[in-house]
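Exam review. A common question shows you a sequence with its structure tokens and asks you to describe the fold in words. Practice with the pair below. Do the first one on your own.
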Amino acid sequence: MTVREVLLLSASFLDDKDLASALAGSAVTGEAETLLNCFNVVENEIALDDSPLKRTEKLAFEDGLLPYEKFSVPPVDVWAVKSGGARVRFSLTPDGVKSDCAEAEVTYTYAPTKKGIADESELGGKVSARLVALGVASEYCFVKGEYEAAKVWGVQFREALKSAGILRHPLSVRSRRWA
């Protein structure tokens, strides 16, 4: 899905023909730029909270340390380190990933890069253009100060995430009972 597709769908949800015509051009200014910023916020939220972007790379450790700069994109979290097909122990430090192997396949999550209107979204799989557009509409209304509309679109966005099966349940602590 392209960013332009998502933004045009959001503009149609919001029933804003002026915004839709502004998105048709190559230059993004004013309200269209605000909508593009909302897209970047929503894509980041989905990727970091609900549907992580994963990548696996074969990387070399230097003296038991793999600096974060060696990754092709900055990692958010390291999920697994495998050497010779077997998982190996690792730990995360401020400087990088520590492990006893010399070379390994590292699986990690990363944040999406900031997009322009002509770019492709990094989200895929169960994440549809409609789902992202609902989130963008909610964020746009919130930025514009239309809090009731933002709430309505936000509920639809969360329901779409739930329907797609990618909504993570928020952490909660059970209430204590005193005897």
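Now try the second one, then compare your answer with the model answer below.
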Amino acid sequence: MADQKYFYQDGYSAQEEKKLKRYEEWAGKSLDEVKEGIVNDSLNEEQYGAFSIEFWKDESLVFACLKAEHDIELIFNNVRKFLWRDKEFVLSVMSERWYYPLTSIEFQDQEFNYFDYIHESLKNDEDVAVALSKLKNLETS
């Protein structure tokens, strides 16, 4: 037993160090800097936790992430709950443009249910139902 050696990790792995550095890079940034990072591909879904959760109140951040074809579920999981009560916002994110963009197969293959996000008050709304129906028709075509 005495010749068995145990190694304990001291500090962080190289991968963890790299992740922490990326987090630190975005921690103090403004909303505009974060959006710019998304547009120029220097910020991705892995750094969502690095910047202020308050930024997710801003619809333009959501649309910047959608345009960059980030994981739609990760985007929507970060969106502040009150936005899912806003009919205009809900209809905007349910647009065919985001659901089925022509540029990325990986983005097209993401499956999720908008009803997981939409506030109860809008689930029976006629316009929301029509938009959802359009998206379901895209799935079958």
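Model answer, second protein: The chain has one domain: 14-140. The mean pLDDT is 78. Full marks require stating both points clearly.
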